[in-house]
């Protein structure tokens, strides 16, 4: 047993209101800068829907994650490392910008500057890539609240799969309407396929807390990680030519603050805490034969922080005491392992994702509510679960590789909790049979209620602080003249093109870019040197001049 | 398991990935990198050596974090952390330091939403207004005239006095051509325009519009104070927005008073009815989601599969606008099963004490049967003592005799009523029904026909003779109205729940709402059972979806009845929770004093917004129907032959509602004449009005002397957001191009009393439109002068809401950048220049102010019985303050306006400050403010406490309000106790020393003190719920009976058939305006007629944020219409196609969002999508497409302008006609997909 600590998150989808505050605060804090206009480390997608980027779950197309090969070993879906090295200059399978969306702005200035004309001035959309007027035809969240669902919904990979079984499964009709929201960040997987995909060794998983990061100095922009990640949560900054991704807000987490997306979640549905897991067994767990066993295998990796044997092993690995204490108080451990109400997203990708979800309840279908079919009434408590609008099969495809049993069990637990608590609230006689029916005792169901409903700040977020003081390492590197627009910076950069030469410290570059953007009276001019527009609107076909270093014959 | 403990070494050969070749490769890599590869070679771990990630650390660093919030539109009142780096605002995240709600409850953290999180984008965005601008053609003409004449006021007069030049700049409005000017020049033009208007036309020709003061009280008050000091009128917003539920004054005698969202947690049954909580109450929605885990059942009633439907246990998809029928049917079930078949003691006791159900109502004979008349009063019983006409009567069930219980309006203002204005019943047991006596057939109206026309129901009530009059109880009438049959009564009754022909059965509603009858029965039963079991912890969150209809008040009364009947009002966890546009300016007394400048002069001019815009944008000239088109078949004909504007004119001359401009001449001149006449001023003016020598301006609104002339917008985007009938505004108020397609009212339906001038109504009434904003909007595009405003992160201010009990601060994160200024500083600059110009041009003048009969003053007892007696029609004398408005002379020292703005005036000490008839005497506070803020030296404010900065004004607001000043709260409760004779002061006692300072609010959100300004109690840290003081302390509601009202007996309520709760269908726009019917497919099948709803958007707060790049990137990038698959298919539209919506009011060009969550026949055009971003030219007119309100218009409901009668009396934003807009329909067609900008 090799005990490692992993920072994990649980999102209770039953509480998600789909407001996207998490997306906006994350974007404001991390990606409102050139090169990552289209990037949302955190996004929220309406299900059923295609998600962002479009149909990212379809690994037949995008080749993300792992597959179990004939020898029972894991292999990157996009091909092994060796093949990667051989094909390093070939086009990786990447979503093109239209699969994300072409970012745009507006010629807002016309509102202020328009000369006297004969009609209202109006700002029209312009591409942030080309600077040209454009039609907005897709956005970061196009199918929000089922917008365009009759047209786009059938292309939801999960809907496609369910419909292969039965045409009747998911109908896009008013009478059968359902929706829920799925907020997504990087999964900070135990078995990260992005890290395994990187030919430069620029991606790594932090030893102390499992956060997966891209080393901005090491990254050479091969973008194999973008392909490798089945959740499409590694992005390519077309300005710096480097990969970027959700950092689990490590500068905050290290000092005990929750991530931006969590702290600003007004649905109060996010939980952050530690998992202890057995690193030695990850590969075995990720390699189980039957996809439907992956959830159980993943759960089995999570070690009981109260188990003396586990604690001893953890101490051997140098995990400090306050981290062990945090692991014992971990809300994510409770929700995932103790109460078993949180499930992993797409375990079949075999990456062992560490962001877990409580699946949502939904209204009963109308014809049943006429006759009475509600969960609070313990008399028909579980009949209601079968009548919910969201098909359990849909949730199972998201969270349990298609196995409906675990999803059903979670929904029953939520229903039982509500029913039991109604008796408490109304001062009725309590019925122990209600928690017992879902395999819980009264104390447990009350604790779970407290964590899910009352959800105080310090119970939602149990985050031990980092121990290594490394202030001396935080000094800025590089020459102060090497900033965007300064004499040290030349569009196209080093002698061998984009990826060569000493990397510009992106913090310096981006801070000045930000400052420039925020103080300029005009919008970014795509014609301006330095405002490169190349990689983001490159669709992966052909090799436009100057976009890449010249090919060496030997690499052929 | 055990061998896995062996560690890395043992597993060297057990690589988990790929094949041996790859393993080799990775292992080789490990020699060259400082990191650790997992034993199985899957993952790379690394400790240390992370210089490459310093970038994210650096990005997270910042120099300071400042507390602020967002100051208008939204009522969320979320406290935010604004991050500043190197003097630049970088981003914001929510504060999490709200005081705790308690150990067994969720907390308020973290309040916020994506819109608020995107606010900082505006700070440096390309739509930020950085400098003052003015209309180029106007500036040229002004400069030329000023050079010629040497005086700003004369120059302004010269330009606007020349019809040709005036027309030229008016026609340029909205079409670009703004030029940069200096602050000095901009302010001078504004000041000159105001001085000229006051001199030439009168101060009441000036108006200001700025909504929702609670969200930034100082910014609001700074401008309002200027407008009021110069004699202008502030126009109301709450009623104008149609967010005011008129049912609230009607039923409760209160504007709107609702629970904080934390109280949702206490409800065990929750209906969300027309209120899409996740979208419109984003920071509060979690309370609902979490309360479900406590066992709360959630029912959602919405026409679409809305964001909140996701949280429902049961969803009732009622057709839009039919919610009243659903509520009436639920009432039918509750009355049947919980009052008749079984009498639930908890409910019966509640309605006896707290509602008008036991009170006696007279019956008048009509066509061989009877109709309800008026409440029986002590005067009817021969009592001629003071207030007898305002004392209602019930039968004491123990003695069977009529008694006059305490608490009705007759006890509120009379000397003899002191100590008796309470709900104590003593030994009296109010009798709900007269069921053992005689009976009579009653005629009651029904309005369930498709075209909304009325019919007559014949039902019966038990009766009795009291004081020579035939009477029944309100309860007995309610059972008749709801069709709940009891044996032995005459009339036609439903045969059972399944009788679809008779209102108000569950089967009857099914045909109207399409909600299954069984479902309605079940939900009604559950609701009442929950109330019974939980002690009234049933709550209904209600909002715009059912409020903003023409008959929204009727719907609301039907819904509220469910709560009144089941004992849910005035409970924690129970009652109504109206959330649209509601706000709670918790320190209301201090804010009102500052904003209305009542520290210097009284009364202020306050105008009902809807009537103002209806009149001055000439929408009245396009009404297709007469005022009596919507009356009851049982009406007596009070409104026969009247046009809606005639009802406004009548309302003005009877003193019901304000009307400005008030007369057909300058009120300064009227005052001079009145003073010169030497007689009583009121008598003089009444005499001139009676003789017709002086006329109300509303009698001839299109006469140039009756036009408004100067309008100032700040914290507001009237013309891109709330302007129902936006194209009418453009055409008539502003005189610029427009897309108006409507026909004028045909001659046979024109006004009876109000003058109809010319064939073409006037174009361009306004001389000056001034807008202050930080971003370019439709309003700034149309404005003649645009002043660059500081944002919410650049000023000091105060913010409160009714969603939570805290007051918290705005603090500048940076100084206002570019040339921007705070609203406070901008208005002070205007005030100073105005005073400089006004001194010589205007001097000191007397101003005659006409003021209506006001609620919460003795004025509300002016017109007993709610009988309409028009002095102009004869039969009654014009008596100021009785049969007509009051006339008050106010002296205005125009040169001293700036001095007065900057100092706290003397009337605060001399007269005190009043809210809801409780007067506070803040003598100690004035001294304390003088010490803290310092005093002004010299000028009109010499020696008075300074309020010359935003922070000082915030301090004054907090000091003068009982919610933020415990000493005043205690003082106010003591005073109220003298009137009620009950114990109240303990609600605030112990807080005498609590004085919330501005610094306190900057440090952390601070909970307020329980005060007589509101109806609920926070004492002991409990959650605020409205009317808990009324229920627990027997304090009367501010109504006629002192109880909550089911019955409204004003003459006009009878005329409209709304004496009792009733279902009124959406307006039939075909009958009223000749529009095609919903569902009509057009001759060529390329168009479809649909209901046009404008619910609140997920991606904006009104028009704010709908131009924000973050919100646009998360949505569709511009204005859209949501439509069903069926409607889209009908006209060949696919998702994201360009479509046009055209009706008589205007044209919209938007993209379609096709979704199966929409019901067929209804489209959503989310509220306040304006024309500034991604709006091309239309095919219909060739001009730029409009805003969402280009397809709507104002429809005034005459019952909303009733006044002078108990709770149906005017107060600002308390009662007035609503700017409802939901009954509208439109034709939608697919347009060419090539668009032109």
From TrEMBL, chain A:
CDD domains found in the cross-reference section: NarH_beta-like (cd10557)
Residues annotated as domain 4Fe-4S ferredoxin-type: 7-35, 177-208, 210-239
Biased composition (Basic and acidic residues): 517-531, 540-556
Domain of life: Bacteria
Pfam family, one: Nitr_red_bet_C
Keywords, alphabetical: 4Fe-4S, Electron transport, Iron, Iron-sulfur, Metal-binding, Repeat, Transport
Subcellular location: Cell envelope
Name of the protein in its database record: Nitrate reductase subunit beta
Organism: Actinomycetospora straminea
TrEMBL record, chain B:
Species annotation: Actinomycetospora straminea
Domain 4Fe-4S Mo/W bis-MGD-type residues, every copy: 63-127
Required cofactor(s): Mo-bis(molybdopterin guanine dinucleotide); [4Fe-4S] cluster
Superkingdom: Bacteria
Subcellular location: Cell membrane
Keywords: 4Fe-4S, Cell membrane, Electron transport, Iron, Iron-sulfur, Membrane, Metal-binding, Molybdenum, Nitrate assimilation, Oxidoreductase, Transport
Membrane topology classification: Peripheral membrane protein
PANTHER family xrefs: RESPIRATORY NITRATE REDUCTASE, RESPIRATORY NITRATE REDUCTASE 2 ALPHA CHAIN
SUPFAM superfamilies: ADC-like, Formate dehydrogenase/DMSO reductase, domains 1-3
Pfam annotation, one family: Molydop_binding
Known catalytic reactions: nitrate + a quinol = a quinone + nitrite + H2O
Record-listed E.C. numbers: 1.7.5.1
NCBIfam families for the chain: narG
Family per similarity comment: Belongs to the prokaryotic molybdopterin-containing oxidoreductase family.
Designated name of the protein: nitrate reductase (quinone)
